[in-house]
Specification:
4 helices; mainly beta; 465 residues
Length: 465
């Protein structure tokens, strides 16, 4: 199936990759990526390592309440397993004009695996907080232990600590290897409050849920932790049963809001990516990359593509990628760390097979509602925007070549409506570089801006690594 794109680009926008083996779009400028802002990370917030100058990993939200988005960067101690990100020790905030808002802590290394820092109004007071782990220098512990880590809620306007706790359930967590290195705070609504005021974090073989006051709500012990046969590195949260409370999808398990398993099953190898999303007729489903599964809340397989079609489901993304189709589709990076992608409909039929542009680790594709929520979505991958229905793409103009260690040196994507016209911008950053690039679709109407309003795609960014 080939579906025309709602935007087309001139050859001037197409970089070398798009002009070669990757199909180019036909000429026109509507919807073309425009570089809206290049925001340099303020020099006082940068460090230099191995000849590279950078700030650290990045998050986005309205930190100071001015109705515009700001950025937070952080660095971590204990570079466990290709960088880690488990023990932040330095936090800093700056705005779109490159002005420093505040700094807290000091030192640190590049957390080249995105780690345990989230921005959200966790206490419901109308202002954004920083929810994070933070290194406790008073405790001597190895990199593979969380004994020297506290959990904090900080004021987004100043960085000052509002609450801090050191739960025993956190401090006794330890581990090693790939499943240990992936740690991400996921904002969730586990108690049915009027807005999400809880969070979940996976620490190796343990899953912890905490409330806004940093009380541990529940823990869950993951059964499967062997490489290639472990549950999802980064779980997903969402309300799959419609009771107003979030469940947790780990690919081999689905937990109810109280941490009790709704089902547990080792579905398929390489369960690297998961989601909870609308699938068939709007029903919320557990999306699981391992062998291409879609599961209901009772553990029944709604769809199973199988090991031959998806032997190593590295990444999976669900959205409505076809303009005239009311049903969503699934984009699966099916062949491990390669550029091979298939687009599948709700019946399991393959609509398109294509190859993305490469990135150093061949991960990082993200859904972008480039034309607004009522239109077909696109995929951002590294430095290009894709139409999965046709395999057509365009390179973001003016983006420097990525630098950094081989597995980490590419552009991460956070989709966000920065310009306030309902269309999503693409916020791109390389953790090993010193600038943030924001791209918007043409034409830009700055008068349409009515204030920045963050949502789950910003406070729970996927940021595959």
């Amino acid at each position: 199936m080939r579906v025309p794109l709602p935007f087309m680009l001139t050859a001037a926008f197409l970089g070398p990759a798009a002009m070669g083996d990757i199909p180019a779009m036909t000429p026109s400028t509507r919807g073309a990526p425009l570089l809206y802002r290049r925001v340099a990370i303020p020099e006082p917030l940068r460090i230099v390592r191995d000849g590279l100058e950078f700030g650290g990993d990045l998050r986005i939200d309205d930190l100071d309440g001015d109705g515009r988005p700001e950025f937070l960067i952080y660095r971590s101690v204990d570079n466990a397993h290709d960088g880690g990100g488990m023990k932040p020790c330095f936090l800093a905030a700056f705005n779109l004009d490159g002005e420093v808002l505040w700094t807290q802590g000091s030192g640190g290394e590049q957390p080249c695996r995105p780690g345990s820092v989230a921005l959200h109004d966790i206490d419901g007071d109308g202002a954004t907080e920083v929810v994070c782990f933070f290194h406790d220098p008073r405790v001597d512990a190895p990199a593979t232990s969380m004994a020297d880590v506290v959990v904090q809620v900080r004021d987004g306007r100043t960085g000052a600590v509002k609450q801090q706790a050191a739960p025993e359930e956190l401090r006794r967590c330890q581990g090693n290897g790939p499943n240990w290195a992936h740690q991400r705070i996921l904002i969730a609504n586990l108690r049915g409050t009027d807005s999400p005021r809880d969070f979940v974090v996976k620490l190796g073989s343990q899953l912890l849920a905490l409330d806004q006051h940093l009380n541990v709500l529940w823990t869950y012990a993951i059964q499967w932790n062997e490489y290639g046969r472990c549950s999802a590195y980064i779980p997903a949260v969402g309300d799959i049963d419609g009771d107003g409370r979030d469940e947790v999808n780990g690919g081999y398990y689905l937990l109810d809001d109280d941490g009790v398993p709704l089902w547990e099953r080792q579905l398929g190898a390489h369960m690297d990516s998961v989601a909870i999303a609308p699938w068939d007729n709007g029903r919320m489903r557990a999306i699981c990359s391992g062998f291409g599964h879609v599961m209901d809340e009772h553990g029944n397989a709604v769809l199973s593509l199988g090991s031959e079609r998806v032997p190593h489901g590295q990444e999976v993304r669900v959205a409505r990628f076809i303009e005239d189709d009311p049903e969503p589709q699934m984009a699966v990076r099916w062949n491990a760390h390669t550029v091979d992608v298939i687009l599948v409909d709700t019946a399991g039929a393959v609509l398109n097979e294509f190859q993305l542009n490469p990135s150093p680790n061949n991960t990082g594709m993200e859904v972008v509602y480039w034309d607004g929520p009522g239109h077909a979505a696109r995929l951002c991958n590294h430095r290009m925007l894709w139409n999965p229905a046709t395999g057509e793409s365009v390179e973001f103009p003016g983006l420097p070549e990525a630098v950094g260690p081989h597995r980490a040196g590419w552009y991460h994507c956070i989709p966000a409506d920065v310009c306030g016209d309902s269309r999503e911008e693409v916020v791109l950053y390389n953790p090993w570089a010193a600038a943030v690039h924001i791209y918007t679709p043409a034409p830009l109407d700055e008068a349409a801006f009515t204030g920045y309003r963050p949502g789950p795609r910003q406070y729970n960014p996927r940021l595959m690594d």
